[in-house]
Design goal:
Layout lengths: L10 H12 L13 H14 L22 H14 L2 H15 L8 H6 L4 H9 L6 H37 L1 E2 L9 H7 L4 E2 L4 E2 L6 E2 L8 E8 L5 H15 L4 E8 L3 E3 L7 H6 L9 H10 L7 E6 L8 H14 L2 E8 L9 H9 L4 E4 L4 H10 L7
Parallel strand pairs: 5-6, 5-8, 8-9, 9-10
Antiparallel strand pairs: 1-4, 2-3, 6-7
Length: about 400
Amino acid sequence: MEISTGRPTDAGERLRRWRMVLGGGEGEGTGCALSGRDAEMDAALTALYGRSGGAGSRKRAGERSAGLGGSAPQVARWLGDIRTYFPSSVVQVMQRDAIERLGLSSLLLEPEMLEAVEPDVHLVGTLLSLNKAMPETTRETARAVVAKVVEQLEKRLATRTRATLTGALDRSARVSRPRHRDIDWDRTIRANLKNYLPEYRTVVPERLIGYGRAAQSVKKEVILCIDQSGSMAASVVYASVFGAVLASMRAIATRLVVFDTAVVDLTDQLDDPVDVLFGTQLGGGTDINRALAYCQSKITRPADTVVVLISDLYEGGIRDGMLKRVAAMKGAGVEFVTLLALSDEGAPAYDREHAAALVALGAPAFACTPDLFPDVMAAALEKRPLPVP
């Protein structure tokens, strides 16, 4: 909440703003009483961010307390209140905090609760972690929530991803002896400007640049290998959407593999990212070595393959085996990229020792936002340095 804008405000308005920030109680010192909409907003904030331990704790006199109780109707009303008082971006943060601070995950198994929430990537992650415990009465509502978020992400990411990667594929397919109809005249002229003849006002094209005839066939293979441990929830959502986008491009053969201590190949579900997401099981351990062993077994054209490992690298399997597999793939010509996170969050927690070991092998390891991912993939497809943030 903005406390000061630099514009003159009276003392009463300043006190009101400080009172909203401090939350009342004996120690806040403003002496300002709230009423109307301000009081209702304060009550909604108090239910979540109060200083006591939760709904069951005893409140001392004058102390702000937290708790939404165990009643789904009460929580649903609270969700409606915060959507009335706060913008969508703030509502999503408050929902996430409510799930984490007040243990509301179990209430998301009830349809009336799901209908009241504001869908976002983090809510999808929570729903996926509850997938196996979800009753049939809730499953269709949960699927509708996930589908809405996936649709929003596809609208945001798909067009730019396809355009960026199509350009990369075209550039990687350029040949020096093209047929006449396949000549890229702009690049050919630029490449031969040194051969300009002023007396004839023309360029002698000693070297022709064009597009290869492979444009209609598969040029590259991409394997997305996704850690589905609980800490990677947002990354799983984004990676599944990107997997579906890549699978829709005929020039890329896309494989999507998720893993914890087991490995599941979801490639045959890539036409529907919602099915992919419900095919994951967030939580559990991590065996990166086993997952990479499976991916390695599926590589048929190493020089034309990009493997993207999306993981925080907290390996529960064989560390040396993991590194040896990465080294073997790199030695065979595979482009190997490790994304420590694929999300809009800040710096992720990850195993720094393993990340450094991968970098030493020539396999970059860094966190990536969804908006940067198309550029990273384009660089990997073209075998040029990655735009590491």
